[in-house]
Specification:
By secondary structure, the protein is of the alpha/beta class. The protein has a five-stranded parallel β-sheet, sandwiched between helices. A two-stranded antiparallel ribbon has the order 1-9. It has a two-stranded antiparallel sheet with strand order 5-6. The N terminus is likely disordered.
């Protein structure tokens, strides 16, 4: 972990956001495919918070399996780009499994629209991978207490209309099943039904049934519209 420092901004918890006790965060799940980053984060959390349990997972699928086998953690630190999920997909998927658990997105990508997409998808906060230890610990402490934390310089769209629309879109995407999310990702890659059928080893008729359900859930009429909505939510980032 670098020793670079950076400023962060926060929004106090509102009536619609729970005020949590930092001390209740005893079980933390780190989801990051870089072993060195995982080890550095785990060591930082152990030293700074004295946590009893810090779990790690190298992919979104591994994180979901951890949750299935060992139960939900008290907090999650999630890398933006994973081998099986790039962009807001990771948060959308985990938020469906962990509706009340604070999820911190960590990334070197500080683009305004990406931060907006992550926060709209349900992140409690978004922090830079270049943060020094003290700044990171302070950010996590505030998020675990219920505060929404974003990098200094981040500017939500004026009036909040953009964030509200993204949040509503994220809620729609969160209704997709894991299989439907895979199919939507392949649609966004330009795959035809026959190609999707082959890649996922399912019947083409099953693909069509899933696509019909996807369109209904996200309120899209055509494939092109579904792709535009996914792009707007920054659901799948290019590898």
């Amino acid at each position: 972990m670098t020793t670079a420092t950076a400023t962060i901004r926060g929004t106090p918890a509102t009536a619609g956001q729970p005020h949590r006790s930092v001390e209740r965060v005893r079980d933390i799940l780190i989801v990051d495919d870089h072993p060195l980053m995982c080890d550095a984060l785990a060591l930082t959390l152990t030293i700074s918070f004295g946590r009893k349990l810090v779990r790690t997972a190298r992919s979104l699928a591994a994180a979901l399996e951890q949750i299935r086998l060992h139960g939900p953690p008290d907090a999650v630190i999630l890398d933006l780009n994973l081998p099986d999920a790039r962009g807001a997909e990771g948060i959308v998927t985990l938020r469906r499994q962990l509706p009340d658990v604070p999820i911190t997105m960590i990334s070197a990508d500080l683009e305004n629209t990406m931060i907006s997409a992550a926060m709209a998808a349900g992140a409690q906060g978004y922090v830079s991978k270049s943060l020094g230890r003290e700044a990171l610990v302070d950010s996590l402490r505030r998020m675990w207490a219920g505060e929404r934390v974003t990098p200094e310089g981040y500017e939500p769209q004026a009036g909040g209309t953009g964030d509200a629309a993204r949040a509503e879109l994220a809620r729609r995407f969160a209704t997709l099943t894991p299989q439907q999310m895979k199919i939507l990702r392949l649609i966004c890659q330009g795959k035809a039904n026959k190609e999707i059928s082959y890649e996922l080893s399912i019947a083409e008729a099953t693909v069509k049934t899933h696509i019909t359900a996807i369109m209904s859930k996200i309120n899209a009429r055509r494939r092109t519209q579904a792709v535009l909505l996914a792009n707007s939510a920054r659901l799948f980032e290019p590898g």
